[in-house]
UniProtKB/TrEMBL annotation:
<keyword id="KW-0732">Signal</keyword>
<feature type="transmembrane region" description="Helical">
    <location>
        <begin position="303"/>
        <end position="321"/>
    </location>
</feature>
<keyword id="KW-0479">Metal-binding</keyword>
<dbReference type="Pfam" id="PF03188">
    <property type="entry name" value="Cytochrom_B561"/>
</dbReference>
<keyword id="KW-0408">Iron</keyword>
<feature type="domain" description="DOMON">
    <location>
        <begin position="49"/>
        <end position="166"/>
    </location>
</feature>
<dbReference type="GO" id="GO:0016020">
    <property type="term" value="C:membrane"/>
</dbReference>
<feature type="domain" description="Cytochrome b561">
    <location>
        <begin position="199"/>
        <end position="392"/>
    </location>
</feature>
<keyword id="KW-0813">Transport</keyword>
<keyword id="KW-0812">Transmembrane</keyword>
<feature type="binding site" description="axial binding residue">
    <location>
        <position position="268"/>
    </location>
    <ligand>
        <name>heme b</name>
    </ligand>
</feature>
<keyword id="KW-1133">Transmembrane helix</keyword>
<feature type="transmembrane region" description="Helical">
    <location>
        <begin position="230"/>
        <end position="251"/>
    </location>
</feature>
<keyword id="KW-0472">Membrane</keyword>
<feature type="binding site" description="axial binding residue">
    <location>
        <position position="337"/>
    </location>
    <ligand>
        <name>heme b</name>
    </ligand>
</feature>
<feature type="transmembrane region" description="Helical">
    <location>
        <begin position="369"/>
        <end position="392"/>
    </location>
</feature>
<dbReference type="InterPro" id="IPR045265">
    <property type="entry name" value="AIR12_DOMON"/>
</dbReference>
Length: 419
């Protein structure tokens, strides 16, 4: 009864896992396409309020072409992104504000300096030059975008920044919500090329001091996230990338030795089951990393990872349907089991290398894994040749024994006939 229940419920479980997998990843800010064909070299998914920052830094004139996007807002809302050169939070923030004025149907984008918590985001000049400020509301994505070019002061590129949104009433922005996300919508930003980390490690404690240097809380957040990435990588390399191929070699070659039967089966099952358990843990850490970075996604790595989880889960549940050796369906089950298993191994190796490239690990780690694969492949080739020698030798011995038995029977029949 329990086995039948698990088989019936498995498709539902698998569908739930698939939905959870895809749902844990948001859009990729790096692959976002602006309708006006604007292109930006760097981007960052901000950790709250479904916001994204895109920019291109021009060192020659120390300017930044910037686009701030806020997803999931209504046409009647206002959005704002600001930079604070000398502190953190609202006071002293130099804001870019945009909203759609329902009274006249005009989309407005302007600058607004903040000197008080009671600000109404009135238009005004900032402490630095801003040019080409504009904005738009995209109804198909429910997102509002502010475009601008910033002329950065003092030769600095790293600052505190904050972002907000709220409702508009009678053409005037209303105060924003005081929810946790709205209160935590601040962090540190570095406009130098390659600094778009897409990290969710920034929080309300992240800031930069008056010299533009980041505080230790930001560094700790970044280091913590990096450690999680390494844990994710180690778990998946060991399970999918190493234990799975080793388990396949055990099943392929050990069963040829009669003395290893049935020990090879239990060793194979233990190795693959352990690999699957560790692999699911690695897969879960990937989901956690993805859910914590709603603007970051690595499509090929993600798709292969989800495929591996599904195929690995199918292999585990297929054991419940494994026919007896003498059953007529066992032949077809073996074909399915072998094809699925080897597919998992190939995809695992491909995804390991994709993960190593994304982590940008040192070459010695790539070479170490390549060395492991070369050793394992060489051992598999040797064992393939050796086991085939044993199989052919047994066939020859069986054939000779059969021929001898046939000749003996014929001699006995001839003797009987002569008598």
């Amino acid at each position: 009864m329990g086995r039948k229940f698990m088989i019936q419920e498995f498709p539902i479980l698998l569908m739930f896992m698939l939905v959870m997998s895809f749902g844990s990843y948001g859009e990729d800010c790096a692959s976002y396409s602006f309708w006006n064909n604007k292109n930006y070299k760097d981007c960052e998914s901000l950790h709250v309020l479904d916001s994204f920052l895109h920019w291109t830094y021009h060192p020659r004139n120390h300017t930044v072409d910037l686009a701030y996007r806020r997803v999931g807002v209504e046409a009647s809302d206002w959005v704002s992104w600001a930079v604070n050169f000398d502190g953190k939070g609202m006071i002293g923030a130099q804001c870019l504000v945009a909203f759609h004025d329902s009274s006249d149907g005009v989309f407005t984008a302007y600058t607004s300096p903040i000197s008080s918590y009671k600000t109404k985001l009135e238009a005004g000049d900032l402490s630095f030059q801003v040019s080409r400020i504009s904005g738009e509301y995209r109804r198909d994505h429910n997102e509002m975008i502010i475009y601008a070019t910033l002329h950065l002061p003092d030769g600095r590129t790293r600052f505190s920044h904050l972002w907000q949104s709220g409702e508009v009433s009678n053409g005037v922005p209303r105060p924003h919500s005081f929810s946790k996300d709205h209160l935590n919508s601040m962090g540190a930003i570095d406009f130098l090329p390659g600094q778009g980390t897409n990290s969710n490690a920034r929080n309300s404690k992240d800031d930069v001091d008056s010299t533009g240097q980041g505080t230790s809380s930001r560094d700790r957040g970044t280091n913590s996230r990096q450690r999680k990435k390494y844990i994710h990588g180690v778990l998946n390399v060991v399970s999918w990338g190493m234990m799975m191929p080793m388990g396949a070699i055990i099943a392929r070659h050990m069963k040829v030795f009669r003395a290893a039967n049935p020990a090879w089966f239990y060793l194979h099952s233990s190795c693959q089951s352990s690999a699957y358990i560790v692999g699911v843990a690695g897969w879960a850490t990937g989901l956690k990393l993805g859910s914590g970075s709603p603007g970051v996604t690595y499509n090929p790595h993600r798709i292969i990872g989800i495929t591996l989880f599904c195929l690995g889960t199918l292999q585990v549940f297929a054991l419940l349907l494994r026919p007896k050796p003498e059953h007529k369906l066992r032949f077809y089950w073996n074909i399915y089991h072998h094809i699925t298993g080897y597919t998992v191994i190939v995809l695992s190796i491909v995804n390991v290398f994709k993960g190593l490239n994304m982590l940008e690990v040192e070459m010695k780690w790539r070479m170490g894994y390549i060395g492991f694969l070369i050793f394992l492949g060489g051992f598999a080739i040797f064992m393939e040749a050796f086991t085939w020698h044993i199989v052919l030798k047994r066939r020859k011995e069986t054939s000779s024994s059969s021929a001898t038995s046939t000749k003996t029977v014929e001699d006995q029949e001839a003797t009987t006939a002569a008598a």
